[in-house]
Amino acid sequence: MVYQNNDTVSVLSNVDSVRTYKIVHTDLSGNIINSILNNQKILISKNWGLVRFFQIDSFPQILKPLTLAGNTNPMGGLYQITNEMLYDYQSGDEIQYHEYFFGNNYPYSYYNRFRKHTILSRTTTFDSLIYQVQETLFNIDSNQLFTNTVQLRYLRSAIIAKIPYDLFNGYNSSLKFQDYCGTKRWTYNTSAYNNDWGYCLLDNCWGHYDFGGASIR
Question: Model's pTM, two decimal places?
């Protein structure tokens, strides 16, 4: 890596000074080789640290530059997902859920249904988002349809996830672009991995309780 210059750029909506480095890809003898990495830039910001870098697990098949999305110290950008970000609805919005559950422990329980929420009104207070909602519940197995009016309340500042989003806390989670009728939107998914899993302090990882400790690292 070769130092190129100092500059100022907007990092996570804040102006900061950065140093720009240019990549020079060489062999073990120091000779420059033919590589798509050559002349690619890495930016290091004074306050934000590494702000432009590369995804290395796909190289050399894919050269994928990455840019800092958020940072908790200092706080800026998309560094956490809160209720206020995820449940930001307006009157007329429709949200549909597919709910499926099968419990094989006695007493047995099972359902397969769709739930649709139509936002009727929104109230924003200093700490909460409050929605009046028309709820339609359709049970696939019985072809039954139920409609009701309910109220949903979310604490605005409640944190759903923080960077890094892939920290495993017993839940599968992902943040990705997903296609919705031809429009790509950021989509965050989370679901319980398995009720048999727990955290093992000794091994500092998650695993099955049945095995007397963690089974993967």
Answer: 0.56
